[in-house]
UniProtKB/TrEMBL annotation:
GO terms for molecular function: ABC-type oligopeptide transporter activity; ATP binding; ATP hydrolysis activity. The chain crosses the membrane at residues 35-59, 71-90, 147-170, 176-194, 259-282. Pfam families: ABC_membrane, ABC_tran. It is a multi-pass membrane protein. Gene3D superfamilies: ABC transporter type 1, transmembrane domain, P-loop containing nucleotide triphosphate hydrolases. This is ATP-binding cassette subfamily B protein. Its main location: membrane. It comes from Ilumatobacter fluminis. One of its GO terms (cellular component) is plasma membrane.
Length: 594
């Protein structure tokens, strides 16, 4: 199997783009400069010992064996033993230092990339799929790891060995060297073909691997449908077909590498035969020594080996450069929602004003909101209602500055949210999502997502504030209970209670809630309703409402229709108006069980 990875045509960089990426990577790697220099020193040391071996052998044959000088022979043997020890030390140290430098570079890049992704607004995640971002942090980083762990080491070592070996060969016998290099044009042609064919073969393997993974994922996800329809046999047949395609792709890749390495080995043997034949004739006529012929033969193998290594590194270097370019593309992305220079803290309280707001999502041309004006007094509860896709959830996100409006302004206490510090913004305006998302860890860990510095007493006070402390104390481990991945150990209602408790822990001035539409278990539905009421009491609240009971408890109702604020008033006023809201209320009432 050939070494390295390949890069698809759409990701392939031209020479100028590749140089720019590598220059930028070099600047990014400056903190690792000392380790890189130490690595270069040990690589040079280890490579030099490869050249010294044939020279010592030449000296031992010509000065020791041929002349019968035991002292010269012992000297060559003694120096050779020292060289072997030095080579061992140099080889070990070069691997240690290159991995320290390479992993240090990757660690810094990984941390910086992760931190930059965390700074991005929701628009960034609308433009980039989660799977693509995960791929940048995993597959692309792994591609880089392959290069820095052994690729760069082999590249530098092969380049030094190639140059040193050629120089020494020419000094020892330029005639034999030129004869040995007669096969080099054939090796170059074979190498160029290998680079092309291996890249195509790898792409084929990668595509087939992707098809296999997709098939496995689809079958596991849809196993209930498959078993219910008795389609197991058909699914096995389909998987056998794509699995065979992967098998064939792997075999083709083996054939590509086999013919190339076989060709290089053949031309290497041919070059050795030419040098031995010509060297024997020159040695018999006294033009070169026997030791020189032996030294040239050994060094020629050192000349062909780097060519093989460099050709194998071609795809690895391409793939790594393409991966770097993708990572730098993310690092160059300016956060859509960012803190501007000179940002000020939001006041602790104040009215919330939406002034002439319009919004269009990235990569779309149709406005979701247009010319929306809404003023919400401090402590007022506003319900946003409207049909699906009307823009009510988008308006709620703009109020919380999860997005910035493309037109108009959102102000709190007279301060435009774009001019506020992000810390004060997140402390004054808190969003409670439609479904409580929990991270793997304990209940306490998940509560501290909102306030990492919160003490155990702070957590208890937050739970008391919304009246749910007893619910979580019922667990055997209390707040130390592990919730497992995505909070699978808790019910939907309990996960929502954790979200509400997070908000209580921050104690914000404004709450923005997207009311949960999923059915809650009877044991927690009443508790969630109670917690919701206690949390919103006395706070400015904007709730995207999906139930009539929630709407009726609001001080005012804002009806969003086709991206505009169509109606605004109390429940009684809007029912009497007999417009959009009256029809929605009638539909809600009709859907209730008798």
């Amino acid at each position: 199997m050939w070494g390295g990875s390949a890069v698809s045509e759409e990701d392939r960089l031209d020479a100028d783009e590749a140089k720019q990426v590598l220059r930028r990577a070099a600047r990014f790697a400056k903190p690792q400069r000392k380790l890189a220099l130490a690595t270069l020193g040990f690589v040079t040391l280890a490579t030099s010992t490869t050249i010294i071996g044939p020279l010592l052998l030449r000296y031992g044959i010509d000065e020791g064996i041929a002349k019968g000088d035991r002292g010269a022979l012992n000297l060559a043997i003694g120096i050779y033993i020292v060289v072997v020890i030095v080579a061992l030390i140099g080889s070990r140290q070069q691997y240690i230092f290159v991995n320290r430098a390479g992993e240090g570079f990757l660690r810094s890049l990984r941390l910086r990339l992760f931190a930059h992704i965390q700074r991005q607004g929701l628009a960034f995640f609308d433009r980039n799929k989660a799977g693509v971002l995960v791929s940048r942090m995993t597959a692309d980083m792994e591609s880089m790891s392959e290069l820095v762990q052994w690729g760069l080491l082999q590249f530098v070592s092969a380049a030094i060995l190639l140059v040193f070996a050629l120089i020494v060969l020419l000094i020892m016998s330029w005639e034999l060297t030129l004869l040995g290099l007669l096969v080099m044009p054939f090796i170059i042609v074979a190498t160029r073909r290998f680079q092309r064919d291996s890249n195509e073969a790898y792409l084929e393997v990668r595509e087939r691997v992707g098809e296999n993974l997709s098939a496995i994922q689809e079958n596991i996800t849809g196993v209930r449908v498959i078993q219910a329809s008795v389609r197991e046999g058909e699914q096995r047949r389909r998987f056998a077909v794509i699995n065979r395609q992967l098998y064939d792709a792997h075999l083709h890749s083996v054939k590509v590498s086999t013919w190339y390495f076989g060709a290089v080995e053949f031309f290497g043997v041919l070059a050795t035969a030419i040098v031995i034949g010509a060297g024997g004739w020159l040695a018999s006529s006294g033009q070169v020594s026997t030791g020189t012929v032996v030294g040239v033969v050994l060094l020629l193998s050192s000349l062909f080996e780097p060519v093989q290594q460099l050709s194998q590194l071609y795809n690895t270097l391409q793939a790594s450069t393409a991966s770097l370019a993708k990572m730098f593309q993310i690092l160059d992305t300016t956060p859509d929602v960012d803190e501007h220079h000179g940002a000020v803290d939001l006041p602790e309280s104040g009215e919330l004003a939406v002034d002439g707001v319009g919004f269009t999502y990235p990569r779309t041309s149709t406005p979701v909101l247009a010319d929306v004006d809404l003023t919400i007094a401090s402590g007022e509860r506003i319900a946003l209602v409207g049909p699906t896709g009307a823009g009510k959830s988008t308006l709620a996100k703009l109020v919380a500055r999860l997005y910035d409006p493309t037109e108009g302004h959102v102000r709190f206490g007279g301060v435009d949210l774009r001019d506020a510090t992000l810390a004060s913004l997140r402390n004054r305006i808190v969003v409670v999502p439609q479904e409580g998302f929990l991270f793997d860890g304990t209940i306490a860990d998940n509560l501290r997502i909102a306030r990492p510095d919160a003490t155990d007493d702070d957590l208890v006070r937050a739970l008391d504030a919304i009246g749910v402390r007893a619910r979580f104390e019922e667990f055997p481990d209390g707040l130390a209970t592990e919730v497992r991945e995505r909070g699978s150990r808790l019910s939907a209602g309990e996960r929502q209670l954790v979200s509400l408790a997070r908000a209580a822990l921050v104690d914000p001035a404004v709450l923005v809630l997207d009311e949960a539409t999923s059915s809650l278990d009877p044991g927690t539905e009443a508790l969630v309703e109670q917690a919701f009421e206690r949390l919103t009491d006395g706070r400015t609240t904007i709730v995207v409402a999906h139930r009539l009971s929630t709407v009726q408890r609001a001080d005012r109702i804002a009806v969003v229709e086709r991206g505009r604020l169509a109606e605004l008033g109390t429940h009684a006023e809007l029912v009497e108006l007999d417009g959009h809201y009256a029809r929605l209320a009638a539909a809600w009432t009709a859907s209730q069980p008798v």
